[in-house]
Amino acid sequence: MERNGKSQAGAEKLEGASSRPIAARPARTSFVTLRSGDTYGLDGHPIDVQVDVVPDTQKHTFQIVGLPGRSTRESRERVSTAIVNSGFRGPRGRILVNLAPACREKDGGGLDLPVAIGIIIATGQIGGPAARSAVEAKLRKTGLLGELGLSGELRPVRGAILIADGLRRCGIKRWIVPRENAREVAWVNGVEVYAARNLRDAVAALVGEMPPFDPSQAPPPPRSAGPDPGDFADVRGQEATKRGCLIAAAGGHNILLCGSPGVGKTMLARRLASILPPLERSESIELVKVRSVLGTHDDALPRERPFRAPHHTVSYAGLIGGGSSPRPGEVTRAHRGVLFLDEFPEFSRPVLEALREPLESCEITIGRSRGAVTFPADFLLVAAMNPCPCGFAGHPRRSCRCTPRQREAYTQRISGPLADRIDLWIRVADVEPSEMLSPRRGLDSTTLAEAAQRARERQYERWGRGRVNARAPLSRLLDSSLIDASVLDVLRAAAEKLSLSARGFARAVRVARTIADLDGSPRVRERDAWEALQFRARTGEPG
After folding, report:
1. What is the rounded CA–CA span in Å between residue 29 and residue 96?
2. 20 to 30 A Cα–Cα from 79, which one of 246, 272, 289, 401?
3. How does 135-149 read in b/e, with b if 16+ C-beta sit within 10 Å?
4. How far is the C-alpha of 186 from the C-alpha of 193, rounded, in Å?
5. 167, 193 in Cβ contact below 8 A?
6. What's the farthest any 2 CA atoms get from each other in the chain?
7. Which residues fall within 8 angstroms of residue 295, CB to CB, at 6 or more apart?
8. Using an 8 Å Cβ cutoff, are 175 and 192 in contact?
9. How far is Cα 59 from Cα 343, in angstroms, rounded to an integer?
10. What's the CA gap between 212 and 203, in Å, rounded?
């Protein structure tokens, strides 16, 4: 009886509760999805920015979910203030922003613009229902990217060209970006770009009140002149060494310059980039992508090949790349150009050994828990060193103070596997004062650049555009149409005498092929082979 009484009382309580009126839930204003992206390594990844706004006069919340990073979480304050200062109605109610996919972290300020636009659309601040419907239809194929300042101005973001290129494959071919990023995004084929200075410009572009960005009608600001690499004619008394630099530039061969202090090793290395052939358009785009992820925004496609000269105290990550979110190192910044390592043996052993993989594969892969990242690293290595710790071993007028043990220890700082990847070993001769004062000028950069360009064109015809002898497959280099059997016999005998490894033999064949191309010969001759073996014999190696 007691149990039945309690049951009856509970039923009456539920019935009474159900008869009371339930408070009305606030009406949902809107839900909108926008397209944006971020970068990891040199790849652009799509992000769906989903904005949901529920009006609530009593409580205001603004939450971002979907694994946002620290700078993305801070965007709540930037976005709210920028919306108000741009003349729009401040967001009120419960705002929820979801960044999909939620399985990977998103960091950076580039998501500010899509979040702000999403709130403006969701709160009904863009026209009536018809206008909003048209805007939402455009959003399906429109990407938005940009960091907001508190006054509503748009700031450039890193990796804009990477994101636009990556999302182009997803059908996003219309982009609204900060005007500093507009030119680099416009270099992506098949993409329409709108350059916005602030949040109001971005809204105008979205509703069709702004014309698309036209690079031809928007000339870039004048570029500051870079450092002058100088001319090879300034280097006196090193005509034989200039020949080695020409071979390196023509075929993309790694080179080591060994000589006493003050003989001109650094001058020669810095001028080598000036005789490399101009960049192809595809190569320029590769450089723009690398620079963009590093925060540099090019106003024009780069025409000069990069020249990087890190100090010998550079760290492993500084040279190779790294970090929790991997960033390119010096080997990637020198992509398609020259990496100059002065005082070569003074670099730490782990740093030097890390060069072995990119010298062979022209790329570097960095593994992290989030995933592996592969950076391009197709560069021409130019190394310079002294013949011994004091620098005067073999000098005609100064005596060396180093012991044999010190010289051997100095030499052994460069491991055999790394030395095997250097194609040209050149001993830079000491210059007599009379040669410095001579009015006779030697080979200049213009002459050397023209010769290197002619040799490269022959290689492009043979291997394909952009391929050089240093990257050519050995099987094709040994084809009977390109090299005589007698020349192979010379190379084989010399390789046995010099104890060359299989890699060393292949690199000697490649250098011989470049020498033949410089002379315009379709076949490698014996004299080409002998000259290549002279460089391969490590005449510049200390000790």
Report:
1. 12
2. 289
3. beeebeebbbbbbbb
4. 6
5. no
6. 125
7. 158
8. yes
9. 65
10. 13
Of the candidates 193, 58, 202, which has an alpha carbon nearest to the alpha carbon of residue 116?
202
**Residue bearing the bigger pLDDT, 229 or 144:** 144
d(CA 196, CA 176): 7
CA distance 114 to 96: 13
Q: Hey, what are 338's tokens? A: 């020259």
Residues paired with residue 396 on neighbouring β-strands, in sequence order: none
Which domains are present in the chain?
Answer: 30-217 (3.30.230.10), 232-431+440-463 (3.40.50.300)
Structure tokens given for 80: 């709210």
pLDDT of residue 439: 65
CA dihedral 442→445→448→452, nearest 10 degrees, is 170
**Look-up of token digits 């500051």:** 224
Query: CA 4 from chain center: how many Å?
Result: 78
Q: Are the CB atoms for 309 and 271 separated by under 8 Å?
A: no
Which pLDDT score, from 0 to 100, does residue 308 have? 96
> pLDDT, tens digit, for every residue of 438-473?
666 778 999 999 999 999 999 999 999 889 999 999
Helices (H) and strands (E) in the chain, counts: 23, 18
Q: Tokens for 239, please give them.
A: 């005509």
The whole-angstrom separation of Cα 332 and Cα 311 is: 16
d(CA 23, CA 39): 46
